[in-house]
Write a structure and sequence with these properties.
This protein is of the alpha/beta class. It has four domains: 238 residues, Orthogonal Bundle (Arp2/3 complex 21 kDa subunit ARPC3); 145 residues, GAF domain (Beta-Lactamase); 152 residues, Alpha-Beta Plaits (2-Layer Sandwich); 217 residues, EAL domain (TIM Barrel). Helix content is 53%, strand content 19%. The strands form five sheets. An eight-stranded mixed barrel has the order 16-17-19-20-21-22-23-24, surrounded by five helices. The chain has a six-stranded antiparallel β-sheet with strand order 5-4-3-8-7-6. It is elongated, with a radius of gyration of 35 Å.
Length: 802
């Protein structure tokens, strides 16, 4: 901290020297040169106070463009500058250029004394340079004409270059340099804005020079320019916010080491919000753990008193703006210790508790105060961070079996998937089931059964290498993953396990013998899915049980019955398509404002002759790509035919990925207008679909919907990279819609993110009235779920909404 304070003092001294030099140069040039200049010959003259009012007005309505961690202002200041250069006394131009903005800056919160002095010195010098340049190129007195016009543009160009150079020198001194490429881009933008403003002002000044009453004609184009600048910068800011949230998503989901994740999160946050310090405090009962980015990068423990002050600051469920001099004394001391005067403080909530607090301190740049948009963005960030940290914690806790300490099924399956995803190598799975374990539980009780499971786990671990993965899959089932070995090695490991199981287990002083049956399956990497490999080992284990206790069997294809291979199921589904047993049922999509049905979603159903009406999840899960496409085409054809009959405004069809040619054929056969068809794709289908294929569908007039948005880790990446018209919020987000606090905040964030991409939003799974009301209050216009209407063979014409 000592070196940081020394650095800050040196920075202030250096900036003070720059300000003093700028002010002295401005005053010297104004007194020595500008004071002797005469005005141009015009019929109308603008008084200095009116010119000052114009400068004040342009300073009041500025647009802030951001560079690195700082910001500088784009405004319409060239308009009063040009009017003053041509229609006012030269010495009055400089006075007005300083006095007008001073009235605004002095009374604007967030402008410190150093920043105020720098801005006023800069305004004085650039106005002086513009005046001197103009009169050097086109000396007065003379009439305003082409020479004066061209000279005015050069004068404005010179002052704009000087202003930009001064701003970037100041930023470089305070922040250690600006990338030259970014500096060039920002200078180019500044010059473009300055020249545009100057041209508009020249046209107005030329008219006003003949009749000052015509000066009001400048107001409409100037206002339009300001609106255009604001709209452009607003869109850029929105884009930066989305990029920021996307980056944070990737940062928090890419690793298991907490400290690097938090530091990366805070670096991104500090740059995006343009603050001097950013920190996150993870709270515990006795205090907390603070990770901070500022003058230093630290991760330190937080005393209980500081943790209590932060808890009190975020007693509400939303972010707050805190002023150190006007807040709770304990929180004020906390901020003072970190040298923070103004802070944004936001709760970082997990699924069930307050996980921490995020603090952003002291905005830097031209825009030094926080606004409502900052509050909304930090709330979205803190909510997302809380969920990610909570999921990270739960994932760590959920990777081991609490009884035996072995890996659990989730971790084991993930490791098998990773092994099979390698470009080469072999993966071997041993699947073990304890023989007669139920008899032990029944005879000696569950405590004895647990002791047997613990002993079995210890013996399995003793039989494998440290690099192998041993897991308890549930109940009395265990599994082992061996990499880059063959069946023979797997049999050796199984033999060692059975030898260890030959020793009795002592439970409550009594000896208990435990035996196990083992199945083994080995495949080359990339040839099977994890579930299929485990199923093969499971089948082999059952063959071992059939052969007697303490047996080992290696899987081979002949073990798989034809009924289990999926061939009969495939043939049955193909026959169902030919017989017309695959039908579409229709669920309404309803306006949450007035209850009107705006569309229906077509859902695949199988009218099975023995099982009755079967949902799609039961018969398409294991279908291959060709069979799945056939089901999609059948449902699409039925949906388009119904919509073409005119009973519904639009129809949604969930597909795995149909090509534009197939969709065009179905549309042509049904006569349905393409704009009334919406194709819903899951995150996986969207991510794997080529962009040109999606664009081809949209070129037909068909709309694309992102189904179950938020259910996967790559939702933001897919949304930004693929052409999407509609986002359907996943059911888990909607479940907590009617509950206050964290769950509602998560849903709000999902709706906001989808809306920011310019997509229409549909909430899925609405089953309660409080959910519908909460979604409507959050601005979600459309909904779907059992409350609004169940799937029916015929399209609904209204929804049961009061």
């Amino acid at each position: 901290m000592v070196w940081s304070r020394v650095d800050r003092r040196l920075t202030r001294l250096t900036l003070g020297g720059l300000i003093a030099a700028t002010a002295v140069a401005a005053f010297a040039l104004w007194a020595a040169v500008v004071g002797d200049l005469v005005p141009y010959e015009v019929d109308a003259r603008i008084p200095w106070w009116a010119l000052a009012a114009g400068f004040a007005l342009t300073e009041r309505f500025v647009v802030h463009a951001h560079v690195r961690g700082s910001a500088h202002s784009l405004s319409l200041s060239e308009v009063p500058l040009v009017l003053g250069l041509l229609l006012a006394e030269p010495r009055h131009v400089v006075i007005a250029a300083v006095a007008g903005p001073a009235l605004v800056l002095v009374f604007t919160r967030g402008h410190g004394f150093t920043r105020l002095c720098f801005n006023l010195a800069q305004f004085g010098l650039t106005a002086t340079l513009a005046t001197i340049t103009l009169h050097a190129l086109a000396p007065a007195p003379s009439a305003i004409g082409p020479v004066v016009w061209a000279s005015t543009l050069v004068a404005v160009l010179a002052s704009s270059l000087a202003a930009t150079a001064l701003v970037f020198v100041a930023i470089g001194l305070s922040e250690g340099g600006i990338p030259s490429r970014r500096l060039a881009r920002m200078m180019g933008a500044d010059l473009f804005v300055s020249m545009t403003n100057a041209c508009v002002a020249l046209a107005g000044a030329t008219i006003a020079a003949q009749d000052l009453r015509a000066a009001w004609l400048l107001a409409p184009p100037a206002a339009m320019l300001l609106v255009a600048y604001r709209a452009y910068v607003s869109e850029r800011a929105k884009h930066r916010s989305l990029e920021f949230l996307y980056g944070v998503t990737r940062s928090l989901s890419r690793g298991n080491d907490l400290e690097p994740e938090l530091l990366d999160l805070l670096r991104r946050t500090r740059a995006s919000f343009r603050v001097r310090a950013a920190e996150i405090v993870l709270l515990s009962r006795d205090g907390g753990l603070r990770t901070a980015i500022g003058p230093d990068e630290v991760m330190v423990e937080v005393p209980s008193a500081d943790a209590a002050a932060l808890r009190h600051a975020v007693y509400a469920d939303h972010a707050v703006l805190v002023d150190r001099d006007d807040c709770d004394p304990a929180l004020g001391r906390y901020l003072a210790e970190r040298g923070i005067a103004h802070a944004l403080v936001a709760p970082v909530r997990g699924e069930t508790r307050l996980a921490g607090v995020m603090v952003l301190g002291d905005r830097i740049g031209a825009a030094t105060s926080f606004d409502d948009e900052d509050l909304r963005l930090i709330e979205a960030l803190a909510t997302h961070a809380g969920l990610s940290l909570e999921l990270d914690r739960l994932e760590r806790e959920a990777q081991s079996d609490p009884l035996t300490g072995l890996a659990n099924r989730t971790l084991f399956m993930r490791r098998v998937e990773e092994s099979l995803a390698r470009p080469s190598g072999m993966a071997t799975v041993l699947f073990l089931d304890l023989d007669d374990f139920k008899a032990i539980n029944d005879r000696a009780g569950h405590a004895a059964g647990d002791a047997v499971l613990v002993a079995a786990a210890a013996r399995i671990e003793a039989a494998v290498r440290p690099v192998d993965v041993a897991a308890r899959m549930g109940g009395d089932e265990f599994a082992v993953l061996l990499e880059d070995v063959d069946d023979h090695h797997g049999e050796q490991v199984a033999g060692r396990i059975l030898d260890l199981f030959a020793e009795p287990v002592t439970v409550d002083g009594e000896s208990t013998w435990v035996r196990s049956s083992v199945g083994i399956a080995t495949v080359a990497a990339g040839s099977l899915r994890a579930e299929e490999l485990l199923r093969q080992a499971d089948v082999a284990m059952y063959r071992a049980k059939e052969a007697g206790k303490s047996q080992v069997r290696v899987w081979f294809p002949e073990m798989q019955p034809a009924a289990e291979s999926g061939e009969s199921g495939r043939e049955e589904l193909l026959a169902a398509l030919e017989l017309g047993e695959v039908v579409a049922h229709f669920q309404p999509i309803v306006s949450l404002v007035d209850g009107a049905v705006v569309a229906v979603e077509a859902l695949a159903r199988w009218r099975h002759p023995r099982r009755g009406l079967v949902g799609a999840a039961s018969f398409v899960r294991d279908a291959d790509a060709d069979l799945l496409a056939a089901v999609d085409r059948e449902v699409l054809a039925q949906a388009c035919a119904l919509a073409a009959a005119g009973s519904v405004p639009a129809v949604h069809v969930n597909v795995a990925g149909l090509d534009a040619g197939s969709v065009r054929q179905v549309l042509g056969a049904s006569g349905l207008e393409p704009e009334r068809l919406v194709l819903e794709l899951s995150e996986g289908a969207l991510a794997s679909a080529p962009v040109h294929g999606l664009e081809a569908l949209r070129a037909l007039g068909v709309r694309i919907a992102f189904d179950d948005f938020g259910s996967g880790l790559g939702a933001l990446e897919v949304l930004r990279a693929r052409p999407v018209d509609i986002v359907k919020i996943a059911r888990p987000f909607v479940d907590g819609a009617g509950r206050p606090g964290h769950e509602r905040s998560v849903l709000s964030m999902a709706v906001q993110v989808a809306t920011m991409f310019g997509t229409q939003v549909v909430a899925q799974g609405i089953e309660r009235e409080d959910q519908r009301e909460a979604l409507a209050a959050l601005g979600c216009e459309l909904g779907q779920g059992y409350l609004l209407g169940r799937p029916l063979p015929q399209a609904p014409v209204h929804a049961p909404v009061s």
